Each structure stands twice: as structure tokens, then as C-alpha cells.
């Protein structure tokens, strides 16, 4: 007999989420593992003693975690998504007939709590990973990537001299579309004033002219706002902390700089922070190293090896890492050279010997592009009648050698990188930290910063990294439980077989 289902909504029904959500469901297992009760004490100071009750801090943070676990960066879309999922409602502690918080409440609460709260939750989850044995600590891989800011290149404003600022603000926006005009200028006065030197501006002008003549086919070339802009001459009134940056083969965008460290043993993120996108990797290494070393020390872990790409290379960084008792495996930058070809360095007397046997003696130390260098010069009389003068110094009068003061640190690091262990460490870095960035940007809600300001961006990055570590933790615990169960079954089978063997040997034939 053919069946036919007729739906009629009941007036009363008995329903329990705990019976509907499967035992092996991800969010059910996450609810059992994750205890965020310490947030009540940490956030108590940010609330008043009267008025309406706010959103529960634990509910707020769990909602944020769900957004990154589900790759949702819109608060409005997040609330809609959660209301349709029974397992997520169970994870949040809501029943099916309860209304979830308003999406704007999530946004306001994110702005209310400081960065330290989000960092504390990240550290708490990291400690859970350490407790399970997922973090070895001895080798850390560091890398960075630009993350798109919540601001458009079309909204950029031109920096002007201080005396012309008020006049400029009354004029039409420079190189901007009227329909993309910012609602208000959030940038401080200092950022609206041009601070670049005449030399820097001239170099920028030459670079833009070359771009216009030879590089019109590059990505983003049709966007004039992206083509002729620089952090030295332009700023974003929408998000003053965002900076213009570009990757090879990509168009210029307003970005933030995301720097992370990953443990090579369990691929767990051990440190994360947002920086301005105009900062180089080599400029942020020391700050990231100090913070990471303290965090690992608090977890009772000993850090020994640092793995990074050539972007972090500098003599100052090599010397700093040696001072911190850390072994660096960082390839030298392409601009580094150990000295001019054909010249021999005499370390005892601190001079260079040219191919013609003339001394290039030490004169002084000076800063060149934020790098301390030793400068060596020959006497003019030594080079005046030299047979290789044209090939050596051209139209100059004496040979000049400028070389970093950290040559020894460079050489020690380069020797380690070129060794068999160094090649192994390079492969370890590429297989550890680089895939993590792909996961964060493609699957963990970090393809774009949906907030304004570097502090808010830092919160977003910490939450995304926390969600990543929680996913790794649950996967690790599940695998460990399955492995222990398989071992137990194997031991039981061996025991049964052994008993059967003894019975067969002892039984009378």
C-alpha cells in the first residue's frame, strides 16, 4: 500500500536538542572541550551595574568562532546561518524557540572588548593544544601575508603640506570617484599631512612615469587610483590604519599585514598579530620573536630554531637572534653580497686588498637605508694610474666599499642554510606555515578584514587563528581516541590468540 505523508504542525511538542545532535557532531564535541567561563571575570569591568542585560560574553565569543569555522565574515549572515543549524544552537546554548542576539550587538561587543581578551582566548586554546602534546616548541616557522582591509582604493585622499590642508579639504577629492566618497574622514591630522622628503617624492614620480610607459598591462593597471598612489602621498580616510601594498603579479590594495608563527610538529599556530601593511617582514621579526618566546616560555616549552623566508633577512635580525640564543634558518636577501668580487678581506687589520694589491682602508660607520655599514676607501693616488680603473670604479676617483657590520652573523647563518639540515628546514617551513595561510584565507574567514582599524584587525586575526587551532585540536583528539581503540582491539586479539595457543598446547592429544 502506498504511503502518503501529510504534515500538520503540532500545537505542543516535546523536543530536546541534546537528543537530536549526534554524539560525534563537531560542535557537540567542541562544546564538551571548550570552557570559556573565565571570560565572565575578564570582561566584568567593561559592563555597568544597571540597565538591560547584555549578550553573554561566552555566547558572543562562540558566535564569533562559528563565523570563522563556517567561513562567514558577515555578522548578519552569521546570525541567519546559526538560527538554521541545530548543532550550532546546541553549541551556543540556545533552544529552538529562543531568539539569537541581534547582529549589531555582535559588532558592538567586538568593539567593546580590548585586544587582550581575544589574545587570552587564543593563549588558552594554545595551552589546550600543548597539554595534548600537539606542540613541541623547539622549531617555529614564521611567515606573513597581506589581508585586504575594509576600504577601497577609490576613496584615497591626497596628502598635502600642513599649510595647505584646510584649503585642500574644501576641494573635490583627488583621483576619486564621487560615488565612492567616504562618509567621514577618520584619519588624524598628522596622517593627512605629507611627510615624505623631496628625494622620496622624486623617486616616486620617476617610478610612476616608468609604470605609465612600460607596465600598462599589469594587473590593476586600469585602476588609476591603484596605479599612481603611494603611502607617502596618499591615505585612506575610511580606514586610516590600512596601508597600500602589492604582491608580485597583483594589483595594489589597501591591506593589513598578518604575521603568524606555526609549530612544525603539530602545525599549531603559536603566535599571530596584525601590523601595518607598509612594514617589511624584517622590521617586525624582533617584536614577533620577543612575544612568541615569552608565550612559549609560559607554556613550559623551549624554543630553539626559527624558520623564515628571505623577507625576514637582515644583519640586525641575525645578531638579535644569536643574542636570544635562537638558531636562524633564514635565507639571505638578494641584495646581500659578502664583498666586491676579486677583493680579499684582512680581518686582523680590518682592510680590503684589491686585485692590484692596494689597500681599501676603513674610514667610518654610517646608516644606509636603516642598516649600519662599514665604509672603506682607497687613496686617490692608488687608483689614478691603475690598469683596471675603468672596470673597477669607472669615472670615480677612489674605490668605495660599503658592507654591513654584521658580516660574521650573515656568514654563520648562510652556512647553516646551505647545509643538509638547512635544506631540510626549508622544506619543513614550506610544508608547515605556507599551507596554514591558505587555510586561513580560503576557509577560516580571513580573506578580508571586515572591521575598521588595526586593533579590530588584530582581534579578527586572533579569532581566526583560535578557530584553526580548535579544529586541529578536535581532529587530533579524535585520531588519538581511534588509535587507542585500535590498539586495545589489537591487544585483545593477541590475548585471545595467545590463550587459544596455550589451550592447544596443553590439551591432551
Automatic annotation (TrEMBL):
<dbReference type="InterPro" id="IPR025668">
    <property type="entry name" value="Tnp_DDE_dom"/>
</dbReference>
<dbReference type="InterPro" id="IPR008490">
    <property type="entry name" value="Transposase_InsH_N"/>
</dbReference>
<feature type="region of interest" description="Disordered">
    <location>
        <begin position="171"/>
        <end position="193"/>
    </location>
</feature>
<dbReference type="Pfam" id="PF05598">
    <property type="entry name" value="DUF772"/>
</dbReference>
<feature type="domain" description="Transposase DDE">
    <location>
        <begin position="353"/>
        <end position="474"/>
    </location>
</feature>
<dbReference type="InterPro" id="IPR047629">
    <property type="entry name" value="IS1182_transpos"/>
</dbReference>
<feature type="domain" description="Transposase InsH N-terminal">
    <location>
        <begin position="16"/>
        <end position="111"/>
    </location>
</feature>
<protein>
    <submittedName>
        <fullName>Transposase</fullName>
    </submittedName>
</protein>
<feature type="region of interest" description="Disordered">
    <location>
        <begin position="208"/>
        <end position="244"/>
    </location>
</feature>
<dbReference type="Pfam" id="PF13751">
    <property type="entry name" value="DDE_Tnp_1_6"/>
</dbReference>
